[in-house]
Structures are given as C-alpha cells and as structure tokens.
Design brief:
By secondary structure, the chain is mainly alpha-helical. About 50% of the residues lie in helices and about 10% in strands. It has one domain. Helix 2 packs antiparallel against helix 3.
C-alpha cells in the first residue's frame, strides 16, 4: 500500500512524521519531501474516504457507550479502542503531487 509515501521518490514517512503532518498542516497545505525536495500535499479524495470512515467509527463507539453501562474499565477500553481504531483508519491516508508539478 502506498500510504504515507512520497509520490515522487517513494520515501515512506514514519508514523511520527505522518502524525506531525496530520496535526500541524491544513488539508490544502503543501510541503517538501525530506528526501527528494519535491512539493507534495494530502490526497483530498482519499482524505474524504478516511473522514467518512472515521465518522462511522465514532458512530459505532457512540452506540457502544449508550448500550453498555460505562464503568471505569469500560471507559479505559473505550479510549484504547478509539485510539487504535483512529490510528488504523488514518493509516489509509496518502499524499499526492501538487498541481504545479504534475
């Protein structure tokens, strides 16, 4: 799978680098690949699918909260499931070439 890779050189971003891009860049931001110095951005079409999947994940967990009597251990498990599921969903995100350099 070509997620978290540069579309020019195939440089694979580490999870930490990817999270930094995810948290500190806007969806329309451009940046340079650290290896080949080409300008890349988020793939917005893939980002929409990722956002829809994330919304479905939130809905499922919200239904689980209302179904179960939430005690401390269930809240902790809920947090773990939320975090792991979110990380899994966002691993399907990918980058693309910017329009200037296509």
């Amino acid at each position: 799978m070509k997620s978290r890779t540069c579309p020019y050189c195939g440089y694979k971003y580490s999870r930490i680098e990817y999270v930094k891009k995810l948290l500190f860049k806007f969806i329309w931001s451009n940046w340079e690949c650290p290896k080949c110095k080409q300008e890349i951005t988020f793939d917005n079409k893939r980002r929409i699918l990722v956002a829809i999947s994330f919304g479905i994940w939130i809905f499922i967990l919200n239904m689980a909260i209302h179904y179960f009597k939430m005690e401390l251990i269930l809240w902790l498990l809920f947090g773990v499931f939320f975090l792991l599921g979110s990380i899994f969903i966002f691993t399907f995100d990918r980058f693309k070439k910017t329009k200037k350099q296509s």
